[in-house]
Specification:
The complex is a heterodimer of chains A (491) and B (224).
Chain A: H1 2-10, H2 14-20, H3 25-51, E1 56-58, E2 63-65, H4 67-96, H5 102-122, H6 128-146, H7 152-182, H8 196-201, H9 208-226, H10 234-241, H11 244-273, H12 276-298, H13 303-324, H14 326-358, H15 369-372, H16 374-387, H17 394-408, H18 413-437, H19 458-473, H20 477-490
Antiparallel strand pairs in A: 1-2
Helix pairs in contact in A: 1-3, 1-5, 2-3, 2-5, 3-4, 3-5, 4-5, 4-11, 4-14, 4-19, 4-20, 5-6, 5-11, 6-7, 6-11, 7-9, 7-10, 9-11, 9-12, 10-11, 10-13, 11-13, 11-14, 12-13, 12-18, 13-14, 13-17, 13-18, 14-16, 14-17, 14-19, 16-18, 16-19, 17-18, 17-19
Chain B: H1 9-30, H2 34-59, H3 62-90, H4 103-121, H5 131-152, H6 156-177, H7 183-210
Classes of the chains: A mainly alpha (491), B mainly alpha (224).
Chain lengths: 491, 224
């Protein structure tokens, strides 16, 4: 089982390895896909194994894997696989067009693999300190992806991303320190006082005031990575300026990794402080994010920024779901994490095709996608509907669960507010997306006619949409058990 | 864990170092010239290395000695020298005074943040009589002052050093509050900081090539 765990995290390193062995850019991309496939298969096997066994532990709990980790590993490695497949054709097109040098493309595959591997590794550790180290390292690797194009705009976005996220994660480190300090009275070794299974088990003996501070700092700190408002300011820039498959990784994998860290702190805080305080913190940040996300989605402009603000909104929804709590709320939060990750990966990957073909990232300049590129246009339309929570896609089910969790609480005000925001988001997002896909195709001779992607670009789109559709009508028994077992870890 | 009493020699030395580090953070905040800003940061890191040395001596910990040495070499000497070279030679930026609010305003804000740090950390969090009770408010204040420097300074390298001041604050808190923090984690944090500085300097060099002087005032392409 330990071997499986190592394989999950080390799989994506195939890309960087190929680059180091001086493989050609395209070969490195294919190696990345093979590695991601291996990693995903290992993650599925790992989740299936860990479901029926005690958590995997090793190396003084620096390796610790329970069902919750397994669930997030499945999500992140799945997204990595989709993005890795998308990367091959996207980067090939960029290189053919002469916008990226062969060196830049190799650099891309290098950091893409590193980024994925670091994120997957951070989901596998039981040590909060190591979690910080790995998340900060993944920030650095992904910042290199954001700044890859080397233009003033992408460097600006990368700078903003790396400086804001580093500060945020440092705040989370301060939170980790206070949590460590809260366990001073425990008779545990210093490693164990940073390991959450021990912290959860001994939660009653932790000093309450430092735990309170630690939770707040952790939510503010890791919330910066999640993109919770008001720490979200790096997010739209980084998502808009990164190469599209890298945006997919940021939105669908990185944000979830940050949320995972928050969930770990939440589990400890709930055991010590009860539900009230963590609930207030999460609902506050969550609703602020939904509000900011929805407000900025109303503006029409760069479509990648639109998707990015939609990510802010959805991260807010997940935070709210965690805040609502109870079996329903937590179930909804985890299911929504998975659904949103897949839907956003599909959207960002299809946006890459649109940006290449139309040579623009402005929504107003894109028309007639369905007529011009049926597969990409269709994926964009269906992906948008999915992200907005329309049936029969998975997000409808998870959002419904979250709203029901809200109504199960005493006051109906918050879930009604949530529904209102969702309605505004629907109108704002659908207005832009519908404008992009409908209409007649631009004339082939128009200045917008860029080049097409290879046929493999359609694979992740179709794959992702199929999974979303399945999750909307049927949750596999294994996944259901995985989520239910994960809930037991949190509460 | 062994408690570090405030009245013990090590406690007194740490307290003293904490005060010096806070004063140097104020010096950074109040220095108009860029090279002084960097120099004060270097001095702060040297004092921090001394504080880590005191903790290492008190707890007899080899790991902390290593950390103290690394702090001295990388933060106290390496980064300031590299920043000066980059800025003075390549960017020719000796007297950058790009501060978005007045110096006196930023110092007053810094005073307010220090008071805030005392208010939040002192009363309920820490038992009296521990060195940590005196040092943690100081380290919290240093963290906040570093964040303030990041906000008011406009040049990208100045923001980077602001982040490093924040790190110094957290590190000071770490050595007094939880001297037994696992070494693997501490080493990882150090590695992250080093890698972070490298990648940020790469961005700064790229931005310098693209823009006139890589000041954040020019970073206005992305909004909304």
């Amino acid at each position: 089982m330990t071997a499986l765990a190592i394989l999950v995290a080390a799989g994506p390193l195939a890309g960087p390895l190929a680059v180091l062995l001086r493989a050609r850019a395209r070969a490195a991309g294919l190696a990345g896909v093979a590695g991601a496939l291996l990693s995903f298969a290992a993650a599925v096997a790992l989740l299936a194994t860990v479901l029926h066994r005690a958590p995997l532990q090793g190396w003084a709990e620096f390796l610790y894997l329970d069902t919750l980790s397994g669930f997030f590993l499945l999500t992140v490695s799945g997204v990595t696989l989709l993005a890795a497949i998308g990367s091959v054709s996207y980067l090939a097109a960029e290189q053919d067009a002469g916008r990226l040098s062969s060196f830049q493309v190799r650099l891309y595959f290098m950091f893409f693999g590193l980024f994925a591997a670091l994120m997957l590794a951070s989901l596998e550790t039981g040590n909060l300190g190591l979690l910080f180290v790995l998340i900060e390292a993944s920030t650095l690797a992904s910042a290199a992806l954001v700044g890859l194009e080397g233009k003033a705009r992408s460097l600006e976005a990368a700078w903003k991303y790396v400086i804001i996220s580093s500060l945020g994660v440092t705040v989370a480190l301060a939170g980790t320190l206070f949590l460590f300090y809260a366990g001073t009275a425990l008779h545990l070794t210093s490693n164990q006082r940073l390991t959450w299974p021990y912290l959860v088990a001994h939660a009653a003996a932790l000093a309450p005031a430092p735990v309170r501070l630690a939770f707040l700092l952790a939510v503010a700190g890791y919330g910066t990575k999640v993109g919770l408002a008001p720490m979200h300011t790096w997010l739209p820039d980084a998502h808009a300026e990164a190469p599209s498959p890298a945006s997919a990784m940021l939105s669908a994998a990185l944000l979830n990794t940050g949320m995972y860290a928050i969930i770990r702190f939440l589990a400890i805080a709930q055991h010590r402080l009860g539900a009230g305080y963590p609930r207030a913190v999460l609902l506050g940040f969550g609703f602020a994010s939904i509000l900011i996300g929805v407000l900025f989605m109303v503006r029409r402009g760069n479509f990648k920024r639109l998707f990015a603000y939609s990510s802010v909104e959805h991260m807010g929804i997940i935070a709210v779901a965690l805040g609502f709590g109870g079996i329903l709320g937590l179930y909804g939060a985890l299911l929504h994490t998975l659904n949103h990750a897949i839907a956003k990966a599909v959207l960002f990957l299809s946006s890459g095709d649109v940006a290449l073909r139309y040579r623009t990232r402005e929504a107003a300049e894109v028309r007639g996608l369905l007529a011009a590129v049926p597969v990409t246009g269709g994926a964009l339309l269906l992906g948008s509907l999915a992200v907005l929570g329309s049936p029969p896609f998975g997000l409808f089910l998870s959002e419904l669960t979250i709203v029901r969790a809200g109504f199960a609480q005493a006051s109906p005000v918050l879930p009604v507010l949530l529904l209102g925001f969702l309605a505004i988001a629907f109108v704002a997002f659908a207005r832009t997306a519908a404008g992009m896909v409908t209409g007649s195709a631009p004339a082939p001779a128009s200045p917008y006619a860029g080049q097409a992607l290879g046929r493999s670009a359609a694979v992740p789109l179709v794959l992702g949409l199929a999974v979303l559709l399945v999750l909307g009508v049927w949750i596999p028994a294994g996944l259901n058990t995985a989520i239910l077992h994960s809930l037991a870890v949190i509460t | 864990m062994e408690k570090l009493a405030a009245a013990s020699p090590a406690g007194v030395l740490l307290d003293l170092a904490g005060v010096l580090i806070l004063l140097l953070a104020f010096a950074c905040l109040g220095s108009k010239l860029f090279n002084r800003y960097v120099a004060y940061y270097g001095a702060q890191s040297v004092v921090l290395a001394f504080a880590a040395g005191v903790a290492a001596w008190r707890f007899g910990s080899v790991e902390l000695w290593i950390l103290a040495g690394l702090t001295l070499l990388i933060k106290g000497i390496g980064i300031p020298v590299a920043a000066r070279r980059l800025l003075l030679r390549r960017v020719a930026l000796a007297r950058d005074s790009a501060i978005s609010i007045g110096l006196s305003t930023s110092l007053i804000a810094g005073g307010g943040l220090t008071a805030f740090a005392y208010l939040v950390t002192r009363p309920q969090l820490l038992p009296h009589g521990l060195a940590a009770a005196a040092v943690v408010p100081l380290s919290t204040a240093v963290t906040l002052l570093g964040a303030l420097a990041m906000v008011v300074r406009r040049h990208t390298v100045a923001q980077l050093i602001g982040w490093l001041i924040v790190e110094n604050g957290v590190f000071l808190g770490a050595i007094t509050l939880v001297a037994t923090f696992p070494f693997i984690v501490e080493a990882g944090i150090f590695l992250d900081i080093a890698a972070g500085v490298l990648i940020m300097l790469a961005f700064v060099t790229g931005l310098t090539r693209q823009l006139a002087e890589a000041s954040a005032t020019e970073l206005r392409g992305l909004r909304g």
